[in-house]
Amino acid sequence: MEILIRESPETCAALAAQIVARTVTSLARPVLGLATGGTPQLLYRELVALHERGELSFRSTTTFNLDEYVGLGPSDANSYHRYMQTHLFDHVDLDREQTFLPPGSAPDLRQACREYEELIAEAGGIDLQILGIGANGHIGFNEPTCSLGSRTWVKILSEQTIRDNARYFGDESEVPRHVVTMGIATILEARHCLLLATGPKKADAVQRMIEGPVSAMCPASALQMHPRVTVVLDEEAAFLLTFKEHYRWVERHKLDWQQLE
Ligand code: PGA
User: Is residue 45 in a domain?
Assistant: First the structure.
């Protein structure tokens, strides 16, 4: 794993936006995996700013989101369909026919999950998967003790995630219990994973992801098995890392061609 520690959520977002922009501009038909939640909002703001300055076009880009709540249609204020419109899709030149989210409202969820995997494969797989991390170590909505071999499927949220996400819904009882999420195996097939974490609430999960054992108790730790992961952390999220100085040392000693590789 490449661990990059920056001062603040804003500087993390600027760095992550550079990584996304480099992927988008270097490929003829880039495929991005997108995440939702509080953390990537600043990243999307940076990407929109790059687009508005004429420095970045998403015209040839295809996107696949990680997860969606079951039963919340695209027009629901708390759906991730709506989130993506608000934070990215409405502000850039993505072809809306090429933006895909998991099928939280499909009549046959199981079939729709299989089709989502097929769509990703038909697009040639994901070039860069943006990820956040839950305070409990989840990525996507793959909660602790999930299968590390899982694929896109219907899953049940943990009580901690329901509490964490209640801030968007006003009340815990309003948070859907069921979600559709890419599985851990789906995520691990992306050619490059970019995980962003900021703030003190993520410090424990970040430490377990990077320095703990690979374990379904911290699903994000499965990323240790991936050949190309970039983790961008602010000082608060990096606070509990035992080898923090080593990660800074490694970054300072990168060869020229490894810069922003
Ligand atoms: P957050 O969520 O960015 O809203 O903290 C991250 C996640 O749960 O993956």
Answer: yes
CATH of the domain at 41: 3.40.50.1360
- The CA-atom distances, in angstroms, between 180 and each of 71, 109, 113, 146 are 10, 8, 8, 13
Cα distance between residue 80 and residue 34, in whole Å? 10
Q: Which domain holds residue 56?
A: 2-253
Q: Are 103 and 119 in contact (CB under 8 A)?
A: no
Q: Which of 12, 41, 43, 133 most suits a substitution to test ligand 1, by most atoms within 8 Å of the C-beta?
A: 133
Task: Establish whether residue 39 lines the binding site of ligand 1, counting it when its CB lies within 6 angstroms of any ligand atom.
Answer: yes
First to last CA, the chain: 12
Q: Is the CB of 132 under 6 A from ligand 1?
A: yes
Q: Tell me if 9 CB under 6 Å of ligand 1.
A: no
Q: Examine residue 15 and state whether it is found in any structural domain, yes or no.
A: yes
Residue with tokens 């097929």: 118
For the chain, what is the domain count? 1
Confidence (pLDDT) at 67: 98
Q: Which of 42, 80, 164, 195 to mutate to test the pocket of ligand 1 (most atoms within 8 A of CB)?
A: 164
pLDDT of residue 106: 95
Instruction: Please tell me the pTM assigned to this model.
Output: 0.97
Mean pLDDT by 10 residues, the chain (261 residues): 97 98 98 98 98 98 98 94 98 98 95 98 98 98 98 96 94 96 98 98 98 98 98 98 97 86 59
